[in-house]
Design a protein that fits this description.
about 300 residues, 7 helices, five-stranded antiparallel β-sheet, globular, alpha+beta, four-stranded antiparallel β-sheet, 17 strands
Length: about 300
Amino acid sequence: MDIYGRFDFIYDGQGGPAKMLEYNADTPTGLIEAAVAQWFWLQDVFPEKDQWNGIHEALIRQWKKMQYRTGMSTLHVAHSELEESGEDWMTAAYMRDVASQAGWTTIGINMSDIGWDPNLNRFVDLDNFMISTMFKLYPWELMMKEPFGHRLLERSHNPRWVEPAWKMLLSNKALLAALWHLYPDHPNLLPAYLNEPGPLKEWVAKPLHGREGDNIRINAAGINLEQPGEYGSEGWCYQQFHPLPDFDGNRPVLGLWVVDGESVGCGIRESDGPITDYFCRFVPNTIDAPAPVAADASSSKAGIAL
């Protein structure tokens, strides 16, 4: 059973159609900004306004649903300590919080501290406690390459992984080329091709198994950028380069968050500056969005101001 995912769209703020950049199905981050920070920003900057967002509440409902369906009550939450920005740690900590509010007993652990007990034939934590259900903020393609990766194929001895292994398929950037092949010229898609740019003159090369923009290459007028990252790839997807007006090297992205197959809120994904500056600059208050929900001062909703 899966918990969440994030579609990334680029939007010009001028009424044009949003263009899909990718779907982060396995390890989406930026969750705290969308589910918490923007709500408090809204209260500080536009207290008279509301917004379309129920990410926080939807996550709690989904964790409750998983507990009911599985009968499990203990959840291990893991991230890689090699990620130095702190974003993974904060996302994992927030997921522990919403799972705890849903009734789970949570245990935090680093990915490198997960062990294998040959007597139990089970994955265990540092206290040799068997791991039955685990939320991991770590890509499946890297898990498979770990020393214990071959144990993942022993399904009868595995924990219930969140996110599940099938998220590898949806996170693969080849999905972008497949969608363009099936629905060419769709207003919400950008042209995309596998292994070569095809007819594209300006393009972004994305590693098929890359995460969050790692190792991308940009070929555009006056811009040639290669962004190094931790995660490699076997193959590339070439997607049309689509900058916003007044492009200055950053690409503001609207993250549409999905929980249990339903869109539950929208948030800003990327910025090097304060969230208030970024939000005001790229998201006009007249943005066309679904009808707002009733304001609730005790809620941690966050998203697009309406």
